[in-house]
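sanity check both lines:
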Amino acid sequence: MFVLGNFIVAFAKILDIALTMYMWVIIARAVISWVNPDQYNPIVQFLYRVTEPVMAPIRRWIPFGNMGIDFSPIIIILAIVFLQSFLVRSMMELAVYFR
C-alpha cells in the first residue's frame, strides 16, 4: 500500500505546484491589465488565453461589473488558496494512512 501513498503524495505536490503557477499567471494578468498592453504580444496573448476561460464565468456571476474594478482575479486567487489549504493538505494526510 505504500505505493498508493507515494502516488498520492506525488500527485498532491504536482497539484500544489500547478495551482501556485496558475496563481502567478493570474497575478501577471492582473498587473498587465493596469497598463495598455500590446494585444499582439505573444506573452499577453498567452496570459489572456490561459486565464480568460476561468475569469469570464466569474465576471458574469459577480454583480460588481459596472464599478470598473475586476474582482475576478481576487476570487480566483482565494479559490486557489482554498484548494491548496484544503485539497492538497487533505491528500497529504490521506497518503499518511497508506504508508
